[in-house]
Design a protein that fits this description.
Elements: E1 2-7, E2 23-27, E3 32-35, H1 42-49, E4 59-61, H2 67-70, H3 73-79, E5 85-88, E6 94-97, E7 101-102, E8 115-118, E9 121-125, E10 128-131, E11 147-151, E12 154-157, E13 165-170, E14 173-178, H4 185-192, E15 196-199, H5 210-223, E16 229-232, H6 238-248, E17 252-254, E18 260-262
Parallel strand pairs: 3-4, 4-5, 5-8, 14-15, 15-16, 16-17
Antiparallel strand pairs: 1-2, 1-18, 2-3, 6-7, 6-11, 9-10, 10-13, 11-12, 13-14
């Protein structure tokens, strides 16, 4: 399996631009998958510069309904005329930060016949499945980080019911993809215990003071108890990543725009 990062907050190649967002191009033995589309159409520009053909994608997955993961969907639909786009049934609900800052998707896209709404578990192909984990027991509480959602005009603390995870089983390996891990990276690692986990940890808001370092140290210790190699970026935070890297060594790697991972 080959994974090319088309967009991330940083870039490891001069030809690739960076933005606050995430987009991964996944090539399995039998399928080509786009996982998220960044905050804008810039992921498609990076794809062209990297020699990645978006028309080859036969299925697209949106990890959750925030702009930095689905902002480039319309550009993708221009580049690719066939692939269905799988997203949680609540992806187009109102999503806000600080109650007033809209961080959701372009609602004009929700009527597209390309979009397939998912709920609970969804098998996309042999060895490729989506999971919301909304009914699974938490081992640590979910942090809302000041985010709210809105339904029928009523706001409530975000519970990230629209977030889903892509699990690919190939050649004896279980590879899990998570956009921002809003339901908690410790919960997700506990639920799946994959061989490889690729996605953000959402630790960028954790201050590197004594309390923050203790939190990151505890998280690193727990993550190391699972048989998993981690590739992270985006919402993990660069300083937070560097701190955890010292603790996790070769079990933790960073994925920037232009990175290629083979598993």
């Amino acid at each position: 399996m080959k994974i090319t990062a088309l967009m991330e907050n940083t870039s490891c190649r001069d030809c690739c631009t960076a933005e606050h967002g995430l987009s991964l191009f996944i090539e399995t033995k039998d399928h080509v998958i786009l996982f998220d589309s960044g905050a804008s159409g810039a992921f498609a520009d990076n794809a062209e510069k990297l020699g990645v053909d978006l028309s080859r994608v036969d299925m697209a997955v949106l990890s959750h309904g925030h702009y930095d993961h689905g902002g480039g969907l319309s550009r993708f639909m221009e580049k690719n005329k066939k692939a269905p786009i799988y997203m949680g049934k609540d992806a187009f609900a109102g999503h806000y930060k600080n109650k007033t800052d809209y961080i959701g998707l372009d609602t004009g896209l929700q009527s597209s016949d390309r979009i397939v709404f998912t709920e609970k578990e969804r098998l996309l192909a042999e060895g490729i499945a989506l999971y919301t984990c909304n009914d699974r027991k938490l081992v640590c509480p979910i942090a809302t980080s000041g985010m709210t959602a809105e339904e029928n005009g009523i706001a409530y603390p975000e519970d990230f019911r629209h977030e889903q995870y892509l699990l690919i089983e190939e050649e004896g390996k279980h590879v899990l993809f998570s956009g921002c891990s809003h339901k908690g990276i410790l919960n997700i690692a506990h639920w799946f215990r994959p061989d490889v986990l690729i996605g953000g940890f959402h630790f960028m808001g954790v201050a590197l003071d004594e309390a923050g370092k203790q939190r990151l140290t505890k998280a690193a210790e727990i993550l190391l108890t699972y048989p998993t190699t981690y590739y992270t970026g985006h919402c993990t935070g660069l300083e937070q990543y560097e701190f955890m890297k010292k603790l996790m060594g070769d079990r933790l790697h960073y994925v920037a725009a232009g990175s290629v991972v083979e598993v």
